[in-house]
Structure formats: C-alpha cells, structure tokens
C-alpha cells in the first residue's frame, strides 16, 4: 500500500459492512476519499482491494449507544487529522408484519436503531462537520415515507422520522454551513427487502444497492447546484414520480393510490 502524503476528504459511514453502506463506501474509495466503515458487525468486503494505506478505516459501532458514536468518531478522525467532510447516516433495520402481531421487543429494537441511532449520529457528527467548510450529512430514508405502508408500519414510521429530522436539520444547520439531505428509494436488493410486505410483491425489488450508492456518492461528493437545493433525493424514476404526485395530492388521493398499490 502507498502511504497517503496529503489530506484527502473524509467520510464516515454507519452500517458500512454490507448493502448500501458497503456500496457507497466502495464508490467513495474510488473517488479517492478516506472512508470510515463502521458497523455492529465487522467490515470484511475490503479484503483483496488495492487501497492506499490509511484510505479505509473500519471499526465497531452500535448506533444505539451515544458513547459508541463518540468513540467511533474519535477513532476515525484520529486517522484524518480531526477532519470530517461528510457523514452517511445509513444504518437501519426493518420489522415486518401487521402491528398487532409484531414483537414489542422488535419494535423497540427498530426504533432504537432507525430513530434514536440516526439522531445520535447527527448529534455526534455535528461538531466535526461544523469545523469543515462545505460539509454534508446524508441520511437513509425511504419511499415508504411518502405515505405510511401497511405490513411494515413501524419501519415506514421510522423513515418519516428520518424525513422530519432531515428537514429540521437542513434549517438548523444552515447557519453552520452544513448541507443536510436524505435518500428515499423504493426497495433495493439488500437485507431490508428480505421481508414479507405486499409492496414488494406489487412494486417489485428493482434497484441494486449500487443504484442507491450512485446517488449517495453524488450528493455527498459531487452534487449539482440543484442537488444542493433538494433536501429529499429519489433514486428510481418510479419513486421520483410517486414523490412528485404525493407532493401535490390531497391525503384522500394519496391514501387511495397507496391502497391500490400496496394496501
């Protein structure tokens, strides 16, 4: 490995061991960034890759623990001279089934990761991002935050939480010069899609994790002027159309369309 001789831009990715986090990490490495891939399970996909020394930093992160967030960020930024240019707030899980049959412990588990964990990540990364001009945070929302989805109700609700947090922080952090965005794709071929939800049967799983990562890396590293103005970013034509129709439709129409598609 060739040792890095100058400071490259740095991105911290939660849930980087697999799926969309892994694919985004790979694309950011291709761009020459220093990447932190942190997850509750070990990051192993990098074995055999030809990387510069210090370009990829991996570590453990339980997003449910704020102390773990602080430790992970100290660890990563120790390799980047204390700098952090971007944060991909990606880690998330899913619980399926009608809410009457969902395990209360699983509901708590999902909420702790998808809601509390995302908030902890934002809070922990803020002081690092604030120090860097032009910094950015991108969080993983979902097209299920367009209108609440049956059979994945708690997951869908958690993505509304991410959407709301993103909108609030896009205003709150503007004075700090931090761009704030989220991604809201339809189903992609990841572990999240390995559930029994009617929307999978009606809409299909047409996206690859790399398709979502393409949008993530663009918003993180190379946004157009229009990208910088948009808070919520779709991935496929279908989710963009559904989002646009939803934005200009009354609730009764949105509910009817959702019922026809997945209800």
From TrEMBL:
One of its GO terms (molecular function) is oxidoreductase activity. SUPFAM superfamilies: NAD(P)-binding Rossmann-fold domains. Pfam families: adh_short. InterPro entries: NAD(P)-bd_dom_sf, Sc_DH/Rdtase_CS, SDR_fam. Keywords: Oxidoreductase. Gene3D superfamilies: NAD(P)-binding Rossmann-like Domain (3.40.50.720). Belongs to the short-chain dehydrogenases/reductases (SDR) family. This is NADP-dependent 3-hydroxy acid dehydrogenase YdfG. It comes from Corynebacterium mycetoides.
């Amino acid at each position: 490995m060739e040792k890095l001789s100058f400071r490259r831009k740095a991105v911290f990715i939660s849930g980087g061991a697999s799926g969309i986090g892994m694919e985004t990490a790979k694309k950011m490495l291709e761009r020459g960034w220093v990447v932190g891939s942190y997850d509750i399970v070990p990051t192993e996909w990098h074995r055999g890759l030809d990387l510069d020394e210090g370009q990829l930093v991996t570590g453990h992160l339980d997003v449910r623990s704020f102390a773990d967030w602080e430790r992970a960020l100290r660890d990563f930024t120790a390799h980047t001279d204390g700098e952090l240019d971007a944060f991909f707030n990606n880690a998330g899980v899913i619980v399926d089934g009608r809410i009457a049959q969902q395990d209360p412990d699983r509901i708590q588990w999902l909420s702790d990761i998808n809601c509390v964990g995302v908030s902890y990540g934002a809070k922990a990364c803020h002081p690092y991002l604030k120090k860097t001009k032009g910094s950015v945070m991108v969080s993983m929302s979902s097209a299920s935050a367009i209108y609440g989805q049956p059979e994945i109700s708690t997951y869908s609700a958690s993505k509304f939480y991410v959407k709301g947090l993103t909108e609030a922080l896009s205003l709150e952090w503007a004075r700090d010069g931090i761009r704030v965005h989220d991604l809201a794709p339809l189903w992609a071929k990841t572990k999240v899609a390995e559930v029994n939800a009617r929307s999978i049967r009606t809409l299909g799983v047409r996206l690859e994790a790399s398709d979502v990562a393409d949008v993530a890396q663009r918003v993180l590293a190379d946004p157009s002027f229009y990208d910088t103005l948009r808070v919520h970013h779709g991935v496929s034509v279908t989710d963009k159309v559904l989002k646009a129709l939803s934005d200009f439709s009354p609730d009764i129409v949105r509910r009817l369309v959702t019922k026809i598609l997945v209800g």
